Amino acid sequence: MTRFLSVITCNNALNMFVFIGGLILNDIVDMSHSQYQRGVKMIKNALFFLLLGVGVFFSSISQADPWKEMPSEQLEKTLSDKFHGGEYSSKGADSCLACHKKSDAVMALFDGVHGDMNNPQSPMAGLQCEACHGPMGKHNRGGKEPMISFGADSSLDAASQNSVCLGCHQSTELMSWHGSAHNLDEVACASCHKVHAAKDPAFDKLAINASCTACHTKEGADLHKRSSHPFKWDQMTCIDCHNPHGAPGEAALKQFSVNDTCFECHSEKRGPFLWEHAPVTENCANCHNPHGGVNESLTKARVPQLCQQCHADDGHGSRVDAGQSAFNAGKSCLNCHSQVHGSNHPAGKMLAR
Amino acid sequence: MRFPLNLITLALAGASGTLLAADFSVGAANTAKVPVDGYQCKSCISSDGLRGNVGVSLGVNDLDDIHAGNALGTDRDGVIGGINADVQGQGNNGYRLKAEAHRLGMANGSGSLGLGKDGRYHLNLDYRAITTYDQGDVQTALWHNDGTLVPSAEPRFLDLNLERHKASLGFELKDALFDTYVKYSREQKTGHQSASLMSPRPVNFALPVDASTDGLKAGVALKGEQWLLDVGYQGSLYRNDIQSLDLLTPQLYGVYSAAPDNEAHRLSLAGQLREDSTVMTGRVAAGRMLQDDALVPMFGNPLQNWDGQVDTLDANLAIHSTLGSRLRLGAKVDYSDRDNQSSVWDFNQGLSGLSFDALSGGFEQNLPLDIERTGVKLDASYRLGSGYRLDGGYERKDTSRSYGEREDTHDDRAWLGVKLAPLSSLSARLELGVGSRGGSDYEANGLTSSEDNTLLRKYHLADRERQDAKLALNWTATDWLSVDVNGYFARDDYDETQIGLNLSRDSGVDVNLNLHPTDSLTAYLFAGQQWIRTDMTAGRNGAVAWQADIADDFINLGGGASFSGLLDGRLTLGADYLFANSRSDGYRSLELPQPDGDYYSYQHSAGIYADYALSAQMALKLAYRYERYYDTDDARVSINGVPGLITLGESDHNYNAHQIMLTFSYLLN
Asked: Signal sequence: where (chain B) (predicted)?
């Protein structure tokens, strides 16, 4: 009935498409009015059944948990009561697979680490399916009693979902999870990780950047600017620098600071240099945007403007030349001050040697 | 009007119920009634053996600019090839193997091999090649020969690219009580990069790169039920095989100093304590950076080697707690100290021709920079109801530095966010922030800034008022269609700056559509635009001489689809397209009013592919990629195009590149 009503409400839009289609036909073919009317009716009937078919088809592919519409609070209370009640199944995984064995998505568990019964730390070596999905209770009586479920379709809040994962996964890499931006933003582990799979996409180097930029769209766009690190070709990944589970330093960087992060690959800029350039020593991000920029070398402005934003004073830094000159052509300021990241030359105070 | 009502209603309705973060961890489970003896898994599948695929790619590149090699994996014009693999193996006794390769053998490729026993030990070998292609056939008037730059009557043609090969070997040993890990890595960098020197006029030249970095990370983590302690070491050694350069004619020694060999070491201690709903984490690390490379011997240099040494101390302490069912609180303090212990000497600068102080006779002391930072962060999050959340925070950073124009600065920021989900299919998050930077008096005539105009404020030290906002909307229109819209805005007003960076505004919007109408069809579309506006001024004789308005724009569009439902599911067809346009326009007024020269780039990247399953074990993929790239920069001029300057030539990119690749895969399932 709902499907039928939804198709009926589409009728106005349908009429509009038919009208436009009819006008086009009328322009293309010099037909009589009765021919035109018959053509319109034919198109209308064809589109009606097409839309009906599409609607039925899309509705049929939608599968959700029976408890998907249950309010989150009620769901959590039900699950919590079940969890503490501890009514586990009589036969473990076999009780679950009696119904779920036909699901490829469920059976894919056995392709991965979590389905390995030889691993004493695997859930399958313990409470099996119920280690993560909670005690079966009366779920096997028609499948309507809720179980702990994960991912985008789960109505259970992220923190409760994550408590299952964090029950086993405690390590140095996860130490800062509780203070991480992802935790505060209620991101579920299952938003990135997949347990029922041979390979967790979060560990697929070719899928990591797409996974991160699906939410971090601004940074995702930055990667396609005139200059950027080679993320867009997956030669580098976001997790080369960031720990998505949080880190004590800023921006969830794996290293202690922005500069330490840059030095991981740009160790030639670490120094210490005899002559230091103070803003460089303080923070590489004073001049560079590591995700990309519309300027060369990921700088926040093109040279000489970038330099002039600090050095546009009474010296030659305030020059502005008409046309191309040794001041603004080639490498501009870096024609002479080529060692802006620091110089180790005895006469390198001006970062020119 | 509906939102406030909903918020209040939900807040009241939820006040008496449990709401947040039930603990479903296996450790909290009530297992008293688990019928252990009855647990079995006759229906479970053993996945012992190898799964995944191995394959080989063979194709053809058609390109005439090495820059295309960034996108196509190699700058080779003609036949190319690489090895691909994605293999997982599992033994019946818990042993596991993982092998991956992506375009292995090409200039941009990677591979890894992992072996281990679940939960016990793991050995990992990684290799990654990254080649960054900058410009091909640049004209260098100076070429490198065994530490000497030799002028050439006719410029030599070289490619500017940087080849990185990094290999690492790691081993982990685990137990219920501890994890230990050790990882050694070595990266070799070779190629040429753009550089410049004065002899006495500026000459741009291609500087050879030949350097390596060795890294070592090791540590042990001890674990308890509610605590964790990690002791670690991290070290890095950089070695540069290109020493300081001499110039043959005119004969100048040590005209260009190379990046010095250096090393860094750090010991860290990190820990975590968990107690009910409170988690406390802390970390303290002591580090040292060293450099004692040989200095260029010259008049006025009192040293053969300078003993550069910087000691660092970093510490963080964070506590996060969930109070009741709705309120989450967090607090964090940070401390960082960079103590530059390097020795201080007088060095003659007069010979550089850039700095001569009659008072000092051209001698200047190096200035070891010390930086000390402290920071505090507070945040709170209150859950109003399912899908409704209010959060906010405050953070402050204090920085003290030596020899700077401003000894102390402090940055404050407060933010407030709200998350709303008025419908199960619609959610929105709005975050607003305000920030301010202040500090001690700005000393425009300090030790390092004798030339500074008193009106000048360097932007990383200047007073600044900041406002920022972010809005994110997610609409799941149907099970198969979702729309994400993200908008952002930030405004930095350097209100005390008369000369320097005055104002910058950054705003943009991104729209993403994801479609998954059937199991066999997925598609996506995205569009985004960003606008960055910058106002700056320069001064002379105590007054503003000119001002510049800089407009940076970026447009990003694209889409793609994949359909796997053809020929009984044996054939998958797909296509992807991306357009990106970066542009920076500057205009200066007051003095010589004029726009800056052209500075923009655009690219079209398109690809189509067909993936056909020949049999249950074999698959064939045919892919075509097209790259159209153009960039221009007014600063790029011909090698002698500007009097008094020798450049690397006018080398804008403007190319079409094509790649056809056939990949044969053998499936191990």
From this structure: 1-21
CB-nearest to A221 from B310, B404, B530 is B530
Say whether A77 and B18 touch across the interface (CB within 8 A). Answer: yes
> Rg of chain A over CA atoms, in angstroms?
31
Neighbour tally for A111: CB within 10 Å: 20
Nearest to A252, CA basis, from A156, A152, A332, A174: A174
Distance CA A109, CA A129 (A): 10
Is residue A101 assigned to a domain? no
Per-residue pLDDT reduced to its tens digit, B63-122:
999 999 999 999 999 999 999 999 999 887 888 999 999 999 999 999 999 999 888 899
Q: What is the pLDDT of residues B46-57, one digit of tens each?
A: 878 899 999 999
The ipTM, to two decimals, is 0.93
Mean pLDDT of B416-420: 96
Which among B653, B625, B442, B596 is positioned nearest to B74, based on CA atoms? B625
Residue A3 lies in a domain: no
For residue A150, give its domain range: 146-203
**What's the predicted TM-score (pTM) here?**
0.89
Identify all chain A residues contacting B124, using CB atoms and an 8 Å cutoff.
Answer: none
Nearest CA in chain A to B231: A172
Among B164, B654, B60, CA closest to A267: B164
- Strands B499-518 and B456-457, how do they pair? parallel
Kind and range of the H or E run holding A134: none
Strands (E) in chain A, as ranges, are none
Higher pLDDT, A115 or B17: A115
Does A25 reside within a domain?
Answer: no
How far apart (Å, rounded) are the C-alpha atoms in residues A280 and A278? 5
Distance CA A191, CA A214 (A): 11
Tell whether A168 is covered by a domain: yes
Chain B residues inside the 8 Å CB shell of A314: 451-453, 539-542
- In angstroms, the CA A282 to CA B401 distance is 9
Is B456 in Cβ contact with A221 (below 8 Å)? Answer: no
Number of domains present in the structure of chain A: 1
Indicate if the pLDDT at residue B393 is higher than 80: yes
